[in-house]
Amino acid sequence: MSNIIECHGLTKVYEYKAALSEIDLNIERGRIVGLLGPNGSGKTTLIKLINGLLSPTSGEILIDGKAPGIETKKMVSYLPERTYLNDWMRVCEIIDFFGDFYKDFDRSRAKEMLHHLDIDTHDKLKTMSKGTKEKVQLILVMSRDADLYCLDEPIGGVDPAARDYILQTIIQNYRTDSTILISTHLISDIENILDDVVFIQNGKIRLTTEVDDIRFKQGKSVDTLFREVFKC
Ligand SMILES: Nc1ncnc2c1ncn2[C@@H]1O[C@H](COP(=O)(O)OP(=O)(O)OP(=O)(O)O)[C@@H](O)[C@H]1O
């Protein structure tokens, strides 16, 4: 399998602080990858670099062999940590907006998922609870037929029962040759859907491995390993 993401000596410095230091990382196509690390370890910074919202201070990041830009944005479906959608819009209007903006957006897929979660498409975002807003945004992002999905804390505000449905929906709706990169602190909730994990700490990659290696060779869950590695 070819790499959808390649980082070579990737460094990002904010003013004087290095958020990422000389990262070398390859992420293959067709994998669901957990980007895991303590607060302030550099997860969001890496996701923003992937999406071209930040530029590297040095080193390079390639998406499908290309520097982030207009071409790569067509291939990447991004769920940011904080919403960028206008609160006053109705869900059906946002669906139209996504449909006009992204050629790969599948309206019927979005409507079906919204229906399953009992979300009325005539409701305005501003009238919704935090968790319901998160569900709407995740559904919109997963309704694109993208090569790479970058989900920054996708299920933090969602109740545990809906989390399971959402995670199953994620698995069912992505192409097997596309990649999902998920940053989250809710490791035990998502670890069953992950193929690989990347542990990041203080802007450096601490560990990259297959989840099966953690389970079968080390006899641990990802959550247990994370707690051991990052014990305060
Ligand atoms: N705009 C900014 N200006 C200055 N420093 C920043 C900025 N954004 C992030 N940082 C710093 O860069 C480091 C990495 O931050 P980042 O948001 O990437 O971490 P994170 O792993 O996503 O954290 P969390 O799990 O808390 O969301 C932190 O020390 C943070 O304070």
UniProtKB/TrEMBL annotation:
CDD domains, per the entry: ABC_DR_subfamily_A
GO molecular function annotation: ATP binding; ATP hydrolysis activity
InterPro entries (alphabetical): AAA+_ATPase (IPR003593), ABC_transporter-like_ATP-bd (IPR003439), ABC_Transporter_VariousFunc (IPR051782), P-loop_NTPase (IPR027417)
Stretches assigned to the ABC transporter domain: 5-227
Keyword terms: ATP-binding, Nucleotide-binding, Transport
Record-linked PANTHER family: ABC TRANSPORTER ATP-BINDING PROTEIN ALBC-RELATED (PTHR42939)
Protein name per the record: ABC transporter ATP-binding protein
Organism: Diplocloster agilis
